[in-house]
Amino acid sequence: MTNHLQAATTLNNGVNMPWFGLGVFKVEEGSELVQAVKSAIKHGYRSIDTAAIYGNETGVGQGIREALAENGIAREDLFVTSKVWNADLGYESTLAAYEASLNKLGLEYLDLYLIHWPVRGKYKEAWRALETLYKEGRVKAIGVSNFQVHHLEDLMKDAQIKPVVNQVEFHPLLSQLELRRFTKEQGIQLEAWSPLMQGQLLDNPVLQEIANHHGKSVAQIILRWDLQHGVVTIPKSTKEHRIIENAAIFDFELNQAEVARIDDLNKDQRVGPDPDNFDF
Fold this sequence. Notes:
Keywords: Oxidoreductase. Belongs to the aldo/keto reductase family. By secondary structure, the protein is of the alpha/beta class. The chain contains ten helices and ten strands. The longest helix has 15 residues, at 57-71.
């Protein structure tokens, strides 16, 4: 039972990763971003997720450094993730991209580095670079994002190190059942991006009914559903009150019937690109 904000799952390499964190997709550089990161850490979040393509690693790093200093928290108590973008998916270019992300973040290492998308013909060389970074102790854990079952099977044919995480679009309209089964069998932790379907689920009557029953928001119901399925989740918000509200999901539990009703909403519907048709 995931019962507090700093609860963590143990990845297949023994590293602990918080079940819950802050995502910063589409949050532009600037004071709003810095303050969001600081607010999250102040209110108990210990995981921050960014990516090179988001263009906001500098602000994320500033927010992290200021929050650590102001709250007396050690860097080792945070779990920071970034991702290598498609244009850099080669061996040397991935190594260079990692250095660029570290420099922008102002950090000495990342806790998790991911291949952002499974670009055909490129992700294996990028993975080889991630394996090098991991073996050299430059990063605590390595994984992928947006990989489907066949991508994972192909990658693992030649990989020396198994991915620890697969971060994918996951929400009640895209419940990724086959992928969840496969990653569980392989000991790969599934992580949800866009868990709230970019706000498109907030008026769903089934979710509203369950939310009313628990005295919670629809967003809180969805995020609790994620955790009860064993999926790490990183909702995005820049508003302090929403950052606090999103994390207030550890004082209740959905029953089996409620989980099943939410599961039944699945339509295999995406808000993001199809990983089989997104190379750039």
